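Our working data are protein records whose layout never changes between entries. Getting from the letters to the C-alpha cells is the skill we practise here. To make this concrete, we reproduce a full record directly below:
***
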Amino acid sequence: MGCDIMKARLSSKNSGLIEKRILLLGLDNAGKTSILLQMKENSFMPQSVPTIGLNIEQVQFRDYNLTFWDVGGQATKLWKHYFDSVDGLIFVIDSTDPERLAKAKAELTRVSKDPGLAHIPYLLMFNKIDLAEQRVPLEELILKMDIEELSKSRIVNF
C-alpha cells in the first residue's frame, strides 16, 4: 500500500519489458481466477473452474510483463510456499459472503505478518461488490476486515 510495484528489474528475454510476479490469494470462491481471466482476456467468465493448486497466467500491460500466480484458496496452509520472489500481492475478498469474512481477515492477517512479504506491497480487492442485493456494504467490509489497522502495519518505505 502506498508503493509503486512497477519499479524493478528489466528482463532481457522479453524485449525490455519489466518483469513482475504478482501473487493472487484469497479464500476459495472469492473470484481470483475470474479476475485474472478478466485482466488477461478482457471478458467475464461467470463459470470458472475452481483452482486446484496453482494457475499461472501472463498479462502484458504497457511496458510490463506481469506473471500472476493464482493460488487455490482451499489450501491456505500452502500459500507460504509461493512467497519467494514476488513483487506484489493481490488479496481477493468475496463481498457477498459475510459468514467467511472473519476467516478471510484471519488469513489476510497471517499473510501480512509473514516476514517473507514484509516489503511487498499488496492490494485488497473486494470482489462481487456489484451484486447489490447480496453484498456486504463497503463500510462494513472495511470495518470487519480492520483495514485501517492493517494499513498501519503495512506502510512500506524505500
Q: What stands out?
A: Helices lie at 32-41, 101-112, 138-144, 147-153. The CA atoms of residues 33 and 70 lie 7 Å apart.
